[in-house]
Amino acid sequence: MSWDVEIDEHTCIGSGMCAALVPEVFALDGAVAHTLTPSVDADETVLDAADSCPAMAITVTDGGREIGPRP
């Protein structure tokens, strides 16, 4: 099973929380983060990164259904 991961570059504040938690998925590029791959294997740590984003800029979807960030 794989998940799709997106970062809203207009919302991202470049805190680096995502890159620190999952450096194989997220990286800082100047003042904002970006994904290194649009699709990832299902991994709770990716959801943790979405939950930890102070700007709520990360969206994780599974088959078109948003699963992160969690409420």
Describe the structure.
The chain has 71 residues and is an alpha+beta fold. The protein has one domain: Alpha-Beta Plaits. The chain is 20% helix and 37% strand. It is built from two helices and six strands; from the N terminus they run βαβββαββ. It has helices spanning 17-21, 44-52; strands at 2-7, 26-29, 32-35, 39-41, 58-62, 65-68. Strands 4-1-5-6 form a four-stranded antiparallel β-sheet. Strands 2-3 form a two-stranded antiparallel ribbon. The longest helix has 9 residues, at 44-52. The relative contact order is 0.31. The mean pLDDT is 97.
Please give a handful of descriptors for the protein shown.
two-stranded antiparallel sheet, globular, single chain, alpha+beta, Alpha-Beta Plaits, four-stranded antiparallel beta sheet
Please indicate the percent range of residues in DSSP E strands (runs of 2 or more).
35-45%
- The CATH architecture is 2-Layer Sandwich
Q: Whole-Å distance between the termini?
A: 22 Å
Taken from the alpha-carbon principal axes, the silhouette is globular
Count, helices: 2
Question: What is the H-and-E element order?
Answer: EHEEEHEE
- Could you say how many structural domains there are in total? 1
Classified by CATH, the class is: Alpha Beta
Q: Number of DSSP strands? A: 6
GO molecular function, one term: electron transfer activity
Cofactor: [3Fe-4S] cluster
Domain 4Fe-4S ferredoxin-type: 3-31
Keywords: 3Fe-4S, Electron transport, Iron, Iron-sulfur, Metal-binding, Transport
